[in-house]
Amino acid sequence: MQKKIIIIGAGIAGLSAGCYGQMNGYETQIFEMHSVPGGLCTSWDRKGYRIDGCIHWLMGANPESMFYETWNELEAFKGKELLYHDYIMHIENSEGKKLIMYCDIDKLETHLMELSFQDSEVIRELTDAVRKFKDIHTASKDESLVKYSKVTMHDFVQRFKDPFLKEALLAFAPKGNSVFSLIFQLAIYNNKDACWPVGGSLEFAKGIEKRYLELGGKIQYKSMVDEIIAANDRVTGIKLTDGCVHTADFVVSAADGYSAIFEMLKGQYINEEIKALYESKKVSNTSIQISLGVNCDLSRYPYCINMMLENSVQIGGVENSQLLIKNYCFDKTLSLPGKSVVTSLIFTDYEYWEELYKNSENYKAEKKKIADWFICLFEKKYPEAKGKIEVVDVATPITYYRYTHVWQGAYCGWKAPAQKIPNVLPGLLGFYLAGQWTQTTGGLPTAVITGKGSIMRICKQDGKNFLSKCS
Ligand SMILES: Cc1cc2nc3c(=O)[nH]c(=O)nc-3n(C[C@H](O)[C@H](O)[C@H](O)COP(=O)(O)OP(=O)(O)OC[C@H]3O[C@@H](n4cnc5c(N)ncnc54)[C@H](O)[C@@H]3O)c2cc1C
């Protein structure tokens, strides 16, 4: 008899698990609390403007990339136009000095040398390292690249003589980051492995949902899982918040790790390591996203500007000294002709917003205050937009939580904790975790790979050969 897998969550990890479950002959059903697929990989519509809430760089677009095959198996790029920018962003200081982070490493090297020839030695060292970085697997075994994982950006920029380059590089990669992660990021762009899928994040997720449904999978939306049920330490199914019980041979949770382990399973299947991991709260950043719908064409501006602010500003308890403004005129599907969508993602503190949310008036007032501050700076930089703003939308860390239950609003999962991260739980059979909370860093490639991994484990448990296409 065909065995059944229940999957919690229709984010990218859940959809991936669903597709591979179907490919391997299981009956699968996804329960998703929301009404659309994608989870954090989403977009939303406001008065004819489509606001994107996720993808800045989608990794795995290069056929040579380690993630390409998996995206391809899910037909994630099928029928999609993939767009590759020439540069990652413009970084500008308050005096108008500008560094353009070109994707092409030769172009970036020439530009950096033009800005500061006196730094040519360290510039060449950096660009040579980027040229050497083909993929993360080989790079993490190459000592000449691995050595940069022990050097922080703070220490690295000290080797530059030009004060603007020092400042601009730190605006691109924060001082606590390793130089290895800077090299990795530049290499991804140089290798044409980072793209923008035209249509945006929700459309991208819908492409994988389509594949899942075509494979015969079922999704039940507006269905929040309240409890994962186990008998004699083996999962038997799930209970929804409306009380309905669904049985299965296996359950994969592709929902937030904290809620699966500590809420749906009530913390019954943990050990000291898991407890310490979650108590460490070593989670990635969270942000506030301000989005505008503007009734004018801003396509003459760079698509992404990182402005170094003259005076830093406190946003929800976090000091920000730069402001990233992204305009989506490069994707004509997001607004009507002659109109523009603009967003800004600013780091903030989850607990600050959690406290503020207890009083809805204060919460709304703070959102408005930040939006007004942003609009003031925005209109100075883009004067033709003055008086033409038709939509103002502010998403806070609470929005991320309300929308997907992502723990601490940390939309990229862990911040590289030292502890081991579980994908199964001690003493519980038939249960698997997938998604960004099962790896050291989050992101869409992590989600898709861990969804696939959960089905590989089920197949192994069942003594079956894993298939990555339909037989
Ligand atoms: C602003 C922003 C920018 C980002 N930029 C990038 C980027 O440029 N590149 C990149 O690769 N990644 C980026 N990410 C990160 C990326 O979106 C996430 O790492 C990835 O989407 C996580 O996927 P997931 O499937 O693991 O989890 P999620 O997307 O969190 O999916 C979990 C799903 O489970 C559902 N769920 C939760 N609890 C329950 C329950 N009890 N019952 C039923 N359903 C439940 C949720 O509704 C959700 O649909 C960004 C994220 C954000 C928010």
TrEMBL record:
Coiled coil: none annotated. GO terms for biological process: carotenoid metabolic process. Gene3D superfamilies: FAD/NAD(P)-binding domain. Transmembrane segments: none annotated. One of its GO terms (molecular function) is oxidoreductase activity. Residues 12-452 form the Amine oxidase domain. It comes from the Bacteria. Pfam families: Amino_oxidase (PF01593). PANTHER family: PROLYCOPENE ISOMERASE, CHLOROPLASTIC, PTHR46313. This is Amine oxidase.
